[in-house]
Amino acid sequence: MVKLRLKRHGKKQRVTYRIIAIDTKSRREGEAIKEVGFYNPRKEQTQLDPFAIIALLKEGAQSTKTVRDILKRAKVLEQVGIDLQLKIKFQ
């Protein structure tokens, strides 16, 4: 299964994140399938590739709660009319 999640990038105290599509069995710093965005929490700066994100979601990719919140703030999903719901599996 593919997930959209954050990948930590940068130095200590100057952290930024890349939004990537990655296999769920890979570790956080593992090799990404595709990089679809960037998020800087210090400056509240976001840069996204909405076409790539929407294509991945339509293929069945899931997103983490944090990435879903970032996408909602950027209003990426509203532009296309997708209602994204996070599916949580309890084991």
Automatic annotation (TrEMBL):
Q: Which family does it belong to?
A: Belongs to the bacterial ribosomal protein bS16 family.
What UniProt keywords apply to this chain's record, in alphabetical order? Chloroplast, Plastid, Ribonucleoprotein, Ribosomal protein
Pfam annotation, one family? Ribosomal_S16
Keyword Isomerase part of the UniProt annotation: no
Q: Give the residues annotated as coiled coil.
A: none
Q: Which PANTHER family match?
A: 30S RIBOSOMAL PROTEIN S16, SMALL RIBOSOMAL SUBUNIT PROTEIN BS16M
Where found?
A: Plastid, Chloroplast
> What cellular component GO annotations does this protein have?
chloroplast; mitochondrion; small ribosomal subunit
- Can you name one GO molecular function term for this protein? structural constituent of ribosome
Single GO biological process annotation from the record: mitochondrial translation
Q: What is this protein called?
A: Small ribosomal subunit protein bS16c
Species per Swiss-Prot/TrEMBL record: Woodwardia unigemmata
Subcellular location, principal: plastid
Source taxon at top rank: Eukaryota
Keyword Ribonucleoprotein assigned to the entry: answer is yes
